[in-house]
Design brief:
Shape: elongated
InterPro entries: Antitoxin_Phd/YefM, phD/YefM_antitoxin, YefM-like_sf
Family: Belongs to the phD/YefM antitoxin family.
Strand order of the largest sheet: 1-2-3
Pfam families: PhdYeFM_antitox (PF02604)
Distance between the termini: 58 Å
Helix content: 55-70%
Organism: Scytonema tolypothrichoides VB-61278_2
Radius of gyration: 24 Å
Function: Antitoxin component of a type II toxin-antitoxin (TA) system.
Number of helices: 5
Order of helices and strands: HEHHEEHH
Strand content: 5-15%
Number of domains: 2
Largest sheet: 3 strands, mixed
C-alpha cells in the first residue's frame, strides 16, 4: 500500500471517482477513505475483494487441517463407528 496514493478523503473520492476506479483496477490495491482526517472506509474493486475472500477461505481451511492434525496427535479423536452411531442417534436416523 502506498500511503500517498492509497489514502485520500471521501470528498476527493467523490469528485474523482473514475480516477480512483482506474487506479484500483490498475494497482489491485484498495483505497482508504478518510472523513475529517480519520480513516473510515476501505474501497476496492470487486475482483480484488473476491481474491481477498478466496485467500481467507484458503487460510481458514489450512488452519482447520492443522487443528485436525493436532487433535489426532493429542488423541482427541473418535472411531468412525462411534461417530456414525452418535450422528444417527442425534438426528434420529435408522439403520
Amino acid at each position: 500500500m502506498d500511503i500517498s496514493r492509497d489514502i485520500d478523503s471521501l470528498s476527493n473520492f467523490k469528485r474523482n471517482t473514475s480516477k480512483f476506479l482506474e487506479q484500483m483496477k490498475e494497482t489491485r490495491e484498495p483505497v482508504v477513505l478518510t472523513i475529517n482526517g480519520k480513516a473510515e472506509l476501505v474501497v476496492q474493486d470487486a475482483q480484488a475483494y473476491q481474491s481477498l475472500l478466496d485467500r481467507i477461505e484458503y487460510l481458514e481451511t489450512v488452519k482447520a487441517i492443522e487443528q485436525g492434525l493436532q487433535d489426532v496427535e493429542e488423541g482427541k479423536t473418535v472411531a468412525l463407528e462411534e461417530f456414525e452411531a452418535r450422528m444417527r442417534q442425534k438426528h434420529g436416523i435408522q439403520g
